[in-house]
Design brief:
Layout: E1 2-8, H1 21-30, E2 34-39, E3 44-49, H2 53-68, E4 74-78, H3 79-87, H4 93-102, E5 108-113, H5 119-126, E6 133-138, E7 141-146, H6 154-157, E8 166-170, H7 171-184
Antiparallel strand pairs: 1-3, 1-4, 2-3, 5-7, 5-8, 6-7
Helix pairs in contact: 3-7
Protein name: DUF1697 domain-containing protein
Organism: Paenibacillus mellifer
InterPro entries: DUF1697
Length: about 190
Amino acid sequence: MTIRIALLRGINVGGKNIIKMAELKRSLTEQGFGEVQTYIQSGNILFASEDEEGALGLRLEEVIRRDFSLDVPVVLRTAAELRATAENCPFTAEEIAAAEASSIGECLYVAFLRSEPTAEALERFAACANEQELFRTSGREVYLLFKESVRNSKLAANLQKLDAYATVRNWKTLSKLISLAGEQGTPK
């Protein structure tokens, strides 16, 4: 079975779109999703499935709509895709270290998009970048590096300019999801 990771957008943030992960896990298990596991409250779900990405995303969104009365966009990746995201970080170790030295809190994030942004969308988004807020893209991922803070970031606030559903995770969460996916994919 392929280990998949569903990244829910806008869950349990600022008291909105509240879903208890234990209830979500139970709901998905009852709907036939295999080996369901959640990680923290921001909507990270690991599960096993051989189904096609598009159909899985629609099915997940339907379960959430029916069982929790919420319309929540879902972005899916396989465990292999998450590993490739981490392995192919376009920022150098020096760039990351410099940002870590000056940033308040986390400095490296990845925006996971449902579809690859067009050149025009990337151009609109690029207009929001500056020396303190950098981005680089690779396919359906947008890597974000903040030299000060993600809070009040013009770049982070304008992800909608990419014309694709996006959900953002910090590097620590990405690393943990990769670790959990590796554990889940290990025969017991």
